[in-house]
Amino acid sequence: MKVDVLTETAIAVPCDRVVAYAADPSHAPEWYANIDSVAWQTPPLLAIGSRVAFTARFLGRRLAYTYEIAAYEPGRRLVMLTSEGPFPMETTYTWEPHGEAGDRTLMTLRNRGEPSGFAAFAAPVMAAAMRRAQSKDLACLKALLERPV
Fold first, then answer.
1. How far does CA 115 lie from the centroid of its chain?
2. Dihedral, CA of residue 49, residue 18, residue 14 and residue 139, to nearest 10
3. Interatomic CA distance for residues 145 and 60, integer angstroms
4. Which of 12, 53, 56, 110 has its CA 20 to 30 A from that of 81?
């Protein structure tokens, strides 16, 4: 069974500021509750082919995986892929100016993949847990970026 979870939020901050923060994997532990650490495996430049190692916790398990940047349209879209572990995954961020004055950002976060082995049986539980986690993560990102400076 495939897993495909899409969440979105409107952030009351201009798009360029949201992108500058959210598209930098180094910031992930600050707004993703389950990500413990991030380490660049290539020079820290966001470009197609860049690789970033993550350690995380999900459903009570420690996970270590490496994302490769598969697509990057500055200011619009970022796609990261991992083929490691029992759950190869694609993570996509998109950003769009939002609101009458363009002073807000609509950000989407999509995780999709096809679990194998035991993880395939747990796909519905994983999807529900991912949906909850993504909603909390985007809420945290929103709170961080909307905080008065």
1. 18
2. 140
3. 29
4. 12
Helices (H), 8-109: 15-22, 28-31
Task: Give the per-residue pLDDT at 57.
Answer: 83
Among the four given CATH numbers 3.40.50.1110, 3.30.530.20, 3.30.70.120, 1.10.10.60, the one describing domain 3-146: 3.30.530.20
Whether 142 has a pLDDT exceeding 70, the answer reads yes
HSE-up of residue 108 (Cα within 13 Å, Cβ side): 15
| Least confidently predicted of 6-10, 62-66, 75-79 | 62-66
Give the pair of three-digit tokens for residue 4.
């495909």
